[in-house]
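Our consortium's second objective concerns turning raw sequence data into structural hypotheses that experimental partners can test. To show how far this objective has progressed, the report includes one record in full. It was chosen at random from the queue rather than selected for favorable results. The single chain below, 119 residues long, was entered without modification.
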Amino acid sequence: MPIKKILHTATLTTIVALLYGCSSTISNKEGGGYYQDGIYFGEHLSKAYVRGVRDGCQTAKGEYTKSHWFFQRKKEYVEGWFIGRNKCRGLLKIDENGDLVLPEKQEVSTESPAILEKF
């Protein structure tokens, strides 16, 4: 009898682990959302998106990291990779709601740069 109980417990544990590992989104890291290198990226993100963010951040820090297989096949990975690369570089600003924060409008000079006058 004890062997049946052990097998039953092991089977249930395996099923629960497999179901938990197959979840399609990642959320609730560091208290409410996904963070990479201390930068907030949002909540309820797919695994492909999170992997893209992770690889994009690594690239932004100088270590080129990209899964070409995912890049060619998973749109969410591509989006995560570019967002991760840009946010980790500090070039792209996104607020806590996930909305793009546009830079302040700057005055555009109407004067031609001296280098363009040669052409």
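The partners drew two points from this record. The two ends are 91 Å apart (CA to CA). The first strand starts at residue 25 and ends at 26. Both points have been shared with the crystallography group to help prioritize constructs.
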